[in-house]
Design a protein that fits this description.
heterodimer; A: 340 residues; alpha/beta; Rossmann fold; eight-stranded mixed beta sheet; four-stranded antiparallel beta sheet; 12 helices; globular; disordered N terminus; disordered C terminus; B: 318 residues; mainly alpha; MetI-like fold; 75% helix; binds adenosine-5'-triphosphate; binds magnesium ion
Chain lengths: 340, 318
């Protein structure tokens, strides 16, 4: 469903994020390359600590500047994100790109009403009066299907359920019609039924508004539901990417395969990535070779000795592995029904 | 909200009654007989009995209490043993002077501490933060009577630019805040008195601001494109209830008038009055002053409580 626009909406080139402290340096994101086209949904999947949130925060420039070293190039809609300052940065955040967070319980300011928090955003970016802002906030709450929106406008966050709060968060994020929506596990903290509703809503709004979206999740079922393309992250690197069909039905990287095989027989929805034996490497001292090698059944000395390059398998289809050739094609039919 | 206010007011009644009992009991807790100071040493038994009766000391204690309470609620605190003037008048006059002093100290302390604390809270761990924290620790630990004496030595004795004691030039009866000749008397006691609240409030503000800045919603505020100063407003509103609680306590203390500071500067406020009453065993004044100050304390807490509720909707109670 990618629109053929000449320039991609998001292009991330060689992104590296390090957290520097006196004791150690955490290599949270390493040489990440990403593109997202206008109107396209990219899902980033990966286990806890793989650097998904850090990548999202880097795109919004939300990382603490004093302790963080960011290198590489981040471009959103032609703007060099790392060069933004002051007013430009303010206009970018919430204007061109918006973000939804994992925890609806804590992501809203507890001492301001929902309406005021949305109106404030609208006013900041569109310079309107408070009344106009509140009127727009009401429209937005209706757009995200918050029941009795007029009453909820005057409610404080603690007076709403988790699902409603996350809808309010979505309304807030969409308030200035961003071109890019970053969603960092927006449904993880919600009940299963609410999760589906919110997911469907987000997909619908994304399509209606033609936004590009990066959606971070643990959940393969969620990815199958919402993604156009998928990128799999491991230890701060993208180890595989491609269309949702390609990655979920024909995984190439041993990590992706391991992750899928643990969920493929049951219903994929609602399942987290299950444990592959071993644990991810310490980001303070990454191995010289492939970071997955210590856990990989196929790893040999070659894998441990050198970092696998990005292997392009097709347009937008990439895997970082030296052992791609002896990967047998996966059994397709069963998985396709799971994705349908 | 109205129901909540009424309930809080009702809660305050038993507290006030408890305080009144303690104040009343002072007569019996205090060692020695207050009448002794009132009477010449060689007073005859009849004179003692007469005075005892005149002051109501001959009745059973609960009756004495009820009589006393009945008078107190109508504003009759009796006569000062030392001066023979009505206690209420003495208290009102002293309290007025203390309010003048306390208001100045509150103004200095709350503003300065709030600003310093906010700056430190925004820069936890930096040299700025350490400087503010150090200053706050000094503020809390340096005894304020010591600071008072040092200030007197420097500005009154050595430099001779400010008066050491008193409340206005000799012969002037009323204090005029806007006249430098009066105001200079207020300066040193005010600064001395503000030292401790500055330390306490700065520390509270710092930790409250730092804590709020660590909360997730601040990231949302950044992500929606607010400028830093707009984020600061959100942070301060969140930190305010905590700071208000401490400000309220400090305000209560300051209204009580510092016995030490007022005595050093002979500022005729409630602390000074208390000191005098203790030295002269002037029990009616002691009782009345303590009672009025305690009620002010309770009332301050009530107001702070309602303010907090107004700022933080999560506290909204019934
Ligand atoms: N401000 C920070 N300072 C130091 N280390 C950090 C900081 N933020 C994140 N990290 C580290 O960076 C790594 C990647 O974290 P990140 O939050 O991106 O993981 P994630 O993929 O989002 O995981 P999860 O699925 O649990 O949300 C982790 O090891 C984390 O400890
Ligand atoms: Mg995360």
């Amino acid at each position: 469903m990618s629109m053929e626009t000449s320039a991609p909406l998001v292009s991330v080139t060689d992104l590296n994020v390090k957290f520097v402290s006196r004791e150690s340096t955490v290599n949270a994101v390493n040489d990440v390359n990403l593109t997202v086209n206008h109107g396209e949904v990219l899902c980033i999947i990966g286990e806890s600590g793989s650097g998904k949130s850090v990548s999202m925060r880097a795109l919004m420039r939300l990382l603490p500047e004093r302790r963080t070293k960011i290198t590489g190039k981040l471009e959103v809609d032609g703007q060099d994100v790392l060069a933004l300052k002051g007013k430009e940065l303010s206009a970018f955040r919430g204007g061109k790109a918006a973000m939804i967070f994992q925890e609806p319980m804590t992501a809203l300011d507890p001492v301001f009403t929902i309406g005021n928090q949305i109106a404030e955003t609208v006013c900041r970016h569109e310079g309107c009066s408070k009344e106009d802002g509140l009127a727009r906030a009401l429209e937005l709450l209706e757009l995200v299907k918050v029941p009795s929106a007029a009453r909820r406008l005057k409610a404080y966050p603690h007076e709403l359920s988790g699902g409603l709060r996350q809808r309010a968060m979505i309304a807030l994020a969409l308030s200035c019609r961003p071109k890019l929506l970053l969603a960092d596990e927006p449904t993880t903290a919600l009940d299963a039924t609410v999760q589906i509703q919110v997911l469907i809503l987000m997909r619908k709004l994304q399509q209606e508004m033609g936004m590009g979206m990066i959606f971070v999740t643990h959940d393969l079922g969620v990815a199958a539901e919402i993604a156009d393309r998928v990128a799999v992250m491991y230890a701060g690197r993208i180890v595989e990417s491609g269309t949702v069909q390609e990655v979920l039905t024909d995984p190439k990287h041993p990590y992706t395969k391991g992750m899928l095989s643990s969920t493929v027989h049951g219903n994929m929805r609602g399942k987290d990535i299950e444990a592959i034996p071993g644990s991810p490497p310490d980001l303070r001292s990454l191995p010289t070779g492939c970071s997955f090698a210590p856990r990989c059944p196929k790893a040999d000395d070659g894998c441990r000795g050198q970092l696998p390059p990005e292997v392009t398998l097709g347009p937008g289809r990439i895997a970082r592995c030296l052992k791609l050739d002896d990967a047998p094609p996966a059994a397709k039919p069963e998985r396709e029904t799971a994705l349908a | 909200m109205t129901a909540y206010i009424i309930r809080r007011l009702l809660y305050a009644v038993p507290i006030a009654l408890g305080v009144s009992i303690v104040c009343f009991a002072l007569v019996y807790i205090a060692p020695g007989d207050p009448l002794q100071t009132l009477l010449p040493e060689d007073a005859s038994a009849e004179t003692i009995a007469m005075v005892r009766k005149a002051y109501g000391f001959d009745k059973p204690i609960p009756v004495q209490y009820l009589i006393w309470l009945g008078k107190v609620v109508t504003g009759d605190f009796g006569m000062s043993i030392a001066t023979g003037r009505p206690v209420l008048g003495e208290i009102v006059k002293a309290l007025g002077n203390t309010v003048l002093l306390a208001a100045g100290a509150v103004l200095i302390a709350f503003t300065l501490a709030f600003i310093l604390g906010t700056i430190a809270g925004y820069r936890v761990g930096t040299p700025t933060d350490r400087a503010v924290t150090g200053f706050a620790v000094i503020g809390v630990s340096v005894p304020n009577y010591w600071l008072g004496i040092v200030l007197i030595i420097i500005f009154a004795v050595e430099l001779n630019v400010l008066p050491a004691t008193g409340m206005g030039p000799r012969g002037s009866d009323t204090f005029n805040l806007f006249d430098w000749n009066h105001f200079r008397y207020l300066l040193m006691p005010m600064v001395t008195l503000s030292l401790i609240p500055i330390g306490i409030i700065a520390r509270t503000t710092r930790s409250a601001v730092a804590e709020v800045l660590n909360q997730d919603f601040v990231e949302t505020l950044r992500a929606k494109g607010l400028m830093e100063w707009e984020i600061l407003l959100h942070v301060l509103k969140n930190a305010l209830p905590q700071v208000l609680a401490v400000m309220g306590l400090q305000f209560g203390y300051l209204m009580g008038g510092s016995i030490l500071v007022e005595t050093i500067f002979t500022w005729p406020g409630s602390g000074f009055l208390l000191n005098k009453a203790i030295l002269t065993r002037d029990l009616p004044v002691l009782q009345g002053t303590i009672l009025v100050l305690a009620i002010i304390f309770v009332a301050t807490n009530l107001v702070i409580d309602l303010l907090q509720t107004a700022v933080d909707p999560r506290l909204k109670r019934g």
